[in-house]
Amino acid sequence: RRWGGSRSRIHSRSPLRLLIVLAAMYLHGCKQTPATPPTTSDEDSSGSTDDGEMKKKKGNRAMGKKKFPKAKKYYTKAIKIDPENSTYRLNRAIANASLELWKDAEADAASAVELGEPPSAKGFYQLARARLKCGKLDEAEETLNSGLEAYPEEAAMLQLRKDVDRHRAAREAKERRAAEAVAEAKARAAASPDGGAAAAKALLERARGAYGDSPEECLKLCASAREAATVQDTDEAKREEINACSLQGKTALRLKQFEGACEAFARAAELQEAVYSMEKVEEREALANAYNNWGIALKNSGKMSQAIEALNRSYATATNHDDQVATTQVAQVLQNLAQCLVAQDKMKDARKMYARALEVGQRLHGPEHASHGLNHMGIARCLRKEGRLPDAIRAYTAAYEMWQGKDPEGCLAGMPEGPNKERLLP
Length: 426
Known about the structure:
By secondary structure, this protein is an all-alpha fold. The chain has 21 helices and no strands. Helix 10 runs antiparallel to helix 11 and helix 10 packs parallel to helix 12. It is flat.
């Protein structure tokens, strides 16, 4: 009975104890669970070529059982033993392709082709296929041409040639449609008293339709819409150019073309400063959003100082220079500022931003909203970097308690920075 009572007390406290242990492990750099005990072959590994071959064979067996993550792990171990072995790289490229990790597959296949003496047909095939899956049609075709020059009868590459040709035809068809849309819009502009504004609006309608399935076509249509809008020097034309810049920046961010996104959002903010009235709340919020997006693009370009400047402008605009203003937009801008400061290793300043974002969120949503957990996590990471481990554990605990018992889908819905289907697409 006494043992049973003690056991009950242990179990009643186990979640908190487990949390403290996990947080302590995280703070000391142990972010992963301890590895399983090594097998005899791992313990006796001498780093010889034979060890690499053993890991490769284990990877091959895992591939045969369709255990692709396990196969990748073994191929990675083989590569660590013999980094110059092209076969190990190629096998990991195939494992990555099976997992649809196309960027990783491309990197491994490129190494396999570079290290091969001579490069194998499979290496050329895997590299061309991965590049095609990554949307790099020209590079895929170039790789395929090199492969077929070396292996003109290789059936897999001949079949892939048909896929490349289909993608080429589809892209050319999209380009023709885009060119026709531009010509149609210009003709409409010439016949319309609204001129450039009407042309830009028509092109934007096409661009919005292309955004989901054809982001590259969307970018071209946005560029044409911006060009059409500049024909007229009117507020209406400038507003259409603002819309075109905003969509162009959003699309460029999606494609990770950060320099292009910076240019588009900077132009949108410049035009909004000239056209919008700060007395209108919706226009002030739109300008704040443009500065915020510009800051995000600059951050992703690695230009942290400029990003912080743009985000400070966003904050000043969103609050109308009143720190008592509390909106979701303000909280998001503060979080973005904190992330930039973390990148600059300014942990104390970043922590203040996270704390301010938390305060704004609590004023908006009350003390128990799921989104507060993100700010608690940000604060904890800053405290950890500052060496304040007990305080960091308390902050991690606050995040855990915030999310404990809440519905996962509800948590994600309440967090604007949470993952969504579009972000998880390759």
